[in-house]
Amino acid sequence: MKLYCLSGHPTLPCNVLKFKSTTIMLDCGLDMTSALNFLPLPLVQSPRLSKLPGWVLKDGNTFLDKELKDCSGHVFVDSVPEFCLPETELLDLSTVDVILISNYHCMMALPYITECTGFTGTVYATEPTVQIGRLLMEELVNSIERVPKAQSASLWKNKEVQRLLPAPLKDAVEVSTWRRCYTMPEVNSALSKIQLVGYSQKIELFGAVQVTPLSSGYALGSSNWIIQSHYEKVSYVSGSSLLTTHPQPMDQASLKNSDVLILTGLTQIPTANPDGMVGEFCNNLAMTVRSGGNVLVPCYPSGVIYDLLECLYQYIDSAGLSNVPFYFISPVANSSLEFSQIFAEWLCHNKQTKVYLPEPPFPHAELIQTNKLKHYPSIHGDFSNDFKQPCVVFTGHPSLRFGDVVHFMELWGKSSLNTIIFTEPDFSYLDALAPYQPLAMKCVYCPIDTRLNFIQVSKLLKEVQPLHVVCPEQYTQPPPTQSHRTDLMIDCQPPPMSYRRAEVLTLPFKRRYEKIEIMPELADSLVPLEIKPGISLATVSAVLHTKDNKHVLQLPPKPAQPPASKKRKRVNDDLPECKPLKPLLSGAIPVDQFVQALEK
Amino acid sequence: MLDCGMHMGYNDDRRFPDFSYITQNGRLTDFLDCVIISHFHLDHCGALPYFSEMVGYDGPIYMTHPTKAICPILLEDYRKITVDKKGETNFFTSQMIKDCMKKVVAVHLHQTVQVDDELEIKAYYAGHVLGAAMFQIKVGSESVAYTGDYNMTPDRHLGAAWIDKCRPDLLISESTYATTIRDSKRCRERDFLKKVHETVERGGKVLIPVFALGRAQELCILLETFWERMNLKAPIYFSTGLTEKANHYYKLFITWTNQKIRKTFVQRNMFEFKHIKAFDRAFADNPGPMVVFATPGMLHAGQSLQIFRKWAGNEKNMVIMPGYCVQGTVGHKILSGQRKLEMEGRQILEVKMQVEYMSFSAHADAKGIMQLIRQAEPRNVLLVHGEAKKMEFLKQKIEQEFHVNCYMPANGETTTFFTNPNIPVDISLGLLKRETALGPLPDAKKPKLMHGTLIMKDNSFRLVSPEQALKELGLAEHQLRFTCRVHIQDPRKEHETVLRVYNHLKGILKDYSVQHLPDGSIMVESILIQATAHSEDQGTKVLLVSWTYQDEELGSYLTSLLKKGLPQSTG
Question: Residue A210 forms beta bridges with which residues?
């Protein structure tokens, strides 16, 4: 059994597991932090961004000044943003049989894999994962495509040239694999290859392996996966949460007795407590609005935003914010809000009970009804008519490089009354803000990452007791910025096997048994012999049939009796066709009896 | 236990199943591993609170999420009609419904639910009503599939039933429409709209008795789009407070509806009706045309029956029965042509209004049932629900086409059938690989024999190589050798005799390995043959044949072959 590690990002994993005769890809996360190296894509012509000076090498060479711009003391690539793909050369991806998706954040590279590598297999994911994943992709494609940029930059990617660049561009890894965003037709084609599955559904792969998604508690429809044969069990844990938010709780019990547990997608902010962050979020929001400022919340169109809206629903009246408009701006805002209400079966118990009443599970339905929350596809159109300040705006993208958020950064960045509150943990907020400096607006960093922290992990591992743990190397040492925090790493016995991008691990597995079925007729013909008390042996001579990786033993065909004729043309007619095996001889020999028998 | 329904045609003890069939002494919980409810229609879940709270059952009850949501509402509705309106006592209470629902475990489609160590169940989409499911029930390699009510053709709001090729030992299928091959849905819809339209045009009132959830929504979508297209003004009403609520369930469980509705729900939710308004009792006496959907669907009680009594006397009006009616209900009576009905208090009600029947109930027709059998490939089929004569016909058809046994037991009858499952054992990978490593034989049709030893200990069965078995059990292997001397008349030198024997055997045993070894002996497979001159008679050579017990067949064959002597011509 082998594990091919195609992504170096621990929360956006992409691994390929070869198990028995199957090749299974586990997630295909897209590392979008690469976009931070690019200039923002403004929706409205920005005089500031369009007049940036080109970057000049120390020796005065200007050959890169079309591609690289100097902005606020940093160098950015002036082209359509590009993303860092999973490794595509480590193994032939056209041999991948299936792709298992654990949550909608971990499928963003799917179109690159299914459309560009000769992939012909099936993708498995839950219905909410697919629907919300589609929304995320739609938003991404939309926010990049509606700001057409003719220019593409490639000179800087040359290894010789890249060496000469300032950090962080100099240290950017795998730049040769960076690609532009996919298109909607590619998204549609990729999504059409997905087969929907439900929690605890057992899916047979070629009769050899069974895969099962389990609730992981992190997002709507998010799942961990069990990959097992009759004797071996691999658990793939990716993006799990033990906190009580909106999704169905994590199923831990089914992870027990794993031979190998692959652990990815832990919290990116192990030191922050999500509950505390939510409180801080509300306080900062209220303070800003009360003093007449606007609040900007860069976010994804689904996920934590549902929880934030729910908190605000309970908070705004008591905080006296009932008259402050909340705007949710995204091409998929409406769809996201609508979809969240129809996945009752994937929600936590409390929300499920509401549906039985029948009431919408999320209170944002009421916020919309009472006009406190308004949603718009973009800043153009209706929004510009309804827009009232001070207000709170939720919009994407959290990288601050594309989407409607770019416009609000330009609009509100100059005033210290306004506040930007970062809640999504995927991007460093300092890097995200870099091209907007100097900034007068207040910045508050309240990352909300509900995924497992290291304390929860060690509790989980004690509970489910896997024989071996496999995880990204980042989890086997303290974070680089807090090297003294040895509590911020995985601690288990035996120590975890770690992997890094482009590595191949051989998993410690000893397969010793396989299931085989004995046909009833054959079973009837067996003669068991009790060798020791409670232990019987029977010699089996049978015909082995193997079909679709299932093995069946049948009664051997009776040797065809030669017709009893006097003329025997060939002597070997009565040679036995197949020889039934004699039992092995063992045990005590009754010598005396034997001699007596001979004497007779 | 599969479903727990009530009979609409009875008002006495017979309306609930006779649970003493399960056990007469002892608790039901001890006899049942679980209860599975296929969908929320009362003929499938109406006896549930009676069963669990009054007779007594504490085990798990499984149903899908929409069924779990809607079932208690229909039960409460049913209870109100029976207790509050008819004044019956000895019936389950609201609290009992709540307590009963606490025992319900909701299941997802296709989720494998492990009921206990052995029993697992899995739900499939059945189409019939929102949340309707078919269930596969499995223990080891043996399984039963139970369809509940299902519909194999998608309609205006639900998709078609689907099951995979699960090859159950038994498929229990409903057969309500055992012989009906229904005309295309579109024709029926057109017919329905035409009749409603005509009645409204001539100023008549149309009563459509329905159950609050299910067909009602389909017909509402149909009328809503028709009213919009034709720009009609006559009011459409939906009786009972359930309307709004019912439609809400459809909105929240939209993932259970058909593909088209699911795809477009963000833009336009099909269950938000513009033309259909809530009904008030007083409207029934309003002059002019109107269309009213009223519950319940079989005209056996409640508002639909009240409105029916008001409108029955006018020949301009029409009642359209969109579904099946159980014997004993007013619905069944008027559909079978009865025009004078005896109501409560010996009152005679004369029915002058037009009575129409439109089969809108979403059951599989004969074609659909055959299609499901083809999909699931069961080894036995058991038909339930339907009229005996028609079922008999379908039974024959199934037996003819699929060559499987088909049963149709009467109430209270037990059907026994036998399965013959394979026995799963563990095979050591070494043994299996040794067998498969030999690769495909040149003649694929020739069976390949595998030899192993089955170790049976407690309840575990392991198939290993004979050597491993002995080793594991600490047994020493005995060697048993047979040695036989064959005398041959041959004056030649020993090595020449050997060569003659070798050529002889080589000629006969074409498929075997026959070797002439440098030390002058012959090996046939693992059987050793040596020749020595007879100590007294040089013209006689003694052939020593030696073989192990494993080669008994070949050894004795060789001996008897050599005893016949060598052919003269050879050598």
Answer: A204, A228
pLDDT tens per residue, range A164-193: 888 888 888 888 889 999 999 999 999 999
Greater pLDDT, A373 or A176: A373
Give the C-alpha distances (Å, rounded to integers) separating A109 from A154, A187, B48, B381.
21, 10, 49, 47
Per-residue buried b or exposed e for A465-479, using 16+ beta carbons within 10 Å of the residue's own CB? ebebbbbbbbbbebe
Determine the Cα–Cα distance for residues B302 and B294; give it in Å rounded to an integer. 9
The answer to whether A535 contacts B450, with C-beta atoms less than 8 Å apart, is: no
pLDDT band at B437 (very low <50, low <70, confident <90, very high): low
Question: Quick one: pLDDT at residue B514?
Answer: 85
Q: Which amino acid, A258?
A: S
Q: Shortest CB distance from B449 goes to which of A202, A541, A585?
A: A541
Q: Which of B96, B159, B167 is nearest to B136 (CA)?
A: B167
Say what the pLDDT of residue A432 is.
Answer: 96
Beta pairing class for A295-298 and A419-422: parallel
Region B185-357: CATH code = 3.40.50.10890
Classify domain B13-180+362-407 at the CATH class level: alpha beta
Contact A585 B557 (CB under 8 A): no
Whether the pLDDT of residue A572 is over 50: the answer is no
Q: Give bridge partners of residue A516 from the DSSP assignment.
A: B425
* CB within 8 Å of B387: residues ≥ 6 apart: B178
A582: nearest CA in chain B?
Answer: B550
CB pairs under 8 A between A and B: 199
pLDDT for A115 equals 95
B342 carries an active-site annotation: no
CATH for B481-564 (1.20.120, 3.30.310, 2.60.40, 3.40.50): 3.30.310
Using CA coordinates, name the residue in chain A closest to B123: A201
- Residues in chain A with CB shorter than 8 Å from the CB of B552 are 582
Q: Which residues contact B159 (CB under 8 A, 6 or more apart)?
A: B125, B127, B257, B258, B259
Question: Of A106, A464, A545, A458, which Cα lies nearest the Cα of A251?
Answer: A464
Does the pLDDT of residue B443 top 70, yes or no?
A: no
Average pLDDT, chain A: 90
Give me the residue spans of the domains in chain A.
2-268+451-506, 274-445
Residue A197 has pLDDT above 50, yes or no: yes
Q: Identical fold at B13-180+362-407 and B185-357? A: no
Chain B environment of A356 (Cβ under 8 Å):
68-69, 72
Which CATH number is A274-445 given? 3.40.50.10890
Listed range (A93-102, A362-371, B492-501) with the worst mean pLDDT: B492-501
> What is the DSSP pairing of strand A513-518 with strand A550-554?
parallel
Cβ separation of A198 and B108 shorter than 8 Å? yes
**Would you state the pLDDT for residue A566?**
42
- φ, ψ for residue B460, nearest 5 deg: -100, 145
Q: Which 575-594 residues of chain A touch chain B by CB within 8 A?
A: 575-576, 578-587, 589
Residue in B with minimal Cα distance to A202: B112
**Nearest CB to B450: which of A526, A542, A579?**
A542
Q: Pick the residue of B110, B121, B449 with the most A CBs within 10 A to test the interface with A by mutation.
A: B449
CA-to-CA distance for A198 and B111, rounded, in angstroms? 6
pLDDT for res A582? 60
The structure's pTM equals: 0.87
Residue range A2-268+451-506, CATH number: 3.60.15.10
Active-site choice (B53, B174, B218, B356): B174
Please name the residue of chain B whose CA is at the shortest distance from the CA of residue A203: B110
Alpha-carbon separation of residue B465 from A318, A550, B264, B487, B547 (angstroms): 76, 19, 61, 39, 22
**Radius of gyration for chain B, computed over Cα atoms and rounded to the nearest angstrom:** 38
Residues in chain A: 600
